[in-house]
Structures
1.
Amino acid sequence: MPDQEPQPRDPVSELASFGEELRREREIRGISLKEISDATKISKRFLDALERNDHKTLPAPVFTRGFVREYSRYVGLNSEEMVNRYNFAASNDDRIEKPPAVAKYPQTPVRDISPKPAAKRGIPSAFALVDTNIIVAILIAAALAGVAYWAIQFKRRERERTDAANAVPVATTKAAPVAKAPPPAPVAATDDSMLRLTLEATGNSWVRLDADGKSVLNTEVMAGEKRSFEASDRFRFRTIGNAAGITLILNGTRVPPLGEEGEVVKDRIYDRQSLTELRASQDSQ
């Protein structure tokens, strides 16, 4: 009797028997699907689908092979042998979606490496012949010259302003001996309806001044500045930082020097009584 050739194994039946074998081995050992799921962290739904050969529920084969390996290892089967059996059955099963084939070595496009003629260069413009660094240096020099000119002019104006301010008290001092005649009485009587204080700065000084209890000045007065204030009852200087740098005129009467250079004067009050005393002092001289 002639020898018969062995019939090829049906991959579908092989895959079905594979899932049944897993279930049979599990039940022989008395292991539940929940126990495997808790130990391997694989969803019980996937383990059940693996035993029932439900490939619509199972994920891609690459993940299913991992399930087979962990399942087999837990129940005591040869995990690599079971994975190989699953691969054989799954590779011939049309029900399992397979990834599209990709060419292993895609053809590389041919690159043209033939020599190319050099690009023609036209005659450069006159501007292109000038070094860019020279242009930048000229612009920087012009900017520096402008800044230097501005600084010189600013210092000159400041010096002229300072000289003009310093000339004011000198002119006033020289004019004082000439104007020795007593001030007209009618004008003084009219001005006394309000206290009028004129402050002239011959040097920088910080001044805090109140008029009738309200602050009217609290800042540094610069040399050359002149300010005027009015009050009904009195003026009070809380602070004069540089006594020698401040000159006061109260209702047309010059107040004697307040102190020395750099001396600080505090709580100096000028009211109607002070005005009377100042005029009496000048009349007696």
Note: Residues 1-12, 99-105 have pLDDT under 50 and may be disordered.
2.
Amino acid sequence: MTTSPQEKLLNFKHRHSFFVGIDSDGCVFDSMEIKHKECFIPNIIKVWDLQAISKYVRTASEFVNLYSKWRGINRFPALAKAFEVLRDWPEPCRRVRIPEVPTLDAWCNSGQPLSNATLKAEIARTGDPILKKTLEWSETCNRTIEDMVRGVPPFPYFRESVEKVRAKADIICVSATPGDALEREWAEHDIAKYAAVIAGQEMGSKKEHLKLAAGGKYEKDHVLMIGDAPGDCAAARANGALFYPINPGHEEESWERFFKEAADRFFEGAYAGAYESARVAEFEKLLPEKPPWK
């Protein structure tokens, strides 16, 4: 009998009275830039035949994935969002026809885990050509990432932070990255030992990760999500959890502050309220909704 990828989360047994979920790309590792600029975006241009507007594809995709409120979302809705942004930009639209991807939008909104495996199942069911091209792009990205992304260490103060936290809190990785890449990257830098579960896109959304692993197991204000994207904050809020932001462009400072200040506040019950609100306000100013060319 086959088991669900979510079994690891469902079977997770808490050992401590506190819980910390930690995102990976852009939060633990300074890997967002290399993955998007060298892997995801070049393959959008290649697979979707957008060479004639490559500079616009780069700018739109970087805005969506790195410099906006959509930073850190799953690769599939991020792809659809990048096409949406391009279609609303007159200059590239005058040069080529921007892909319309209604079946990708529908699948992204279906509620199922958004991974290559579930995409393959949807293609087997429908035979849809847009989904086939999306899978081609995603699999090509995985190969490029495996070939390209290595030797990217965790941010300074991450290791010190998890060493400090692990004595009092259960820790899991909460990510929209494919699980095999997470396992490879966390093992490469000898940090897999800190995570009771490494949860990737195959196990569902970040919101689902937190619900399955922490729901009903900890007291109020004893669950904290650490992340670098608005989706991390939304996942925390949906589960009644606290949120600590790793600010894009200020990651080392954020981890240093967590190590020296925020972690103690969390364990002492002094994190929620004004302190958390101040951290989130700083974070939200860094990620706008409107692109700079609008």
Note: The chain has two domains: 7-30+153-285, 32-148.
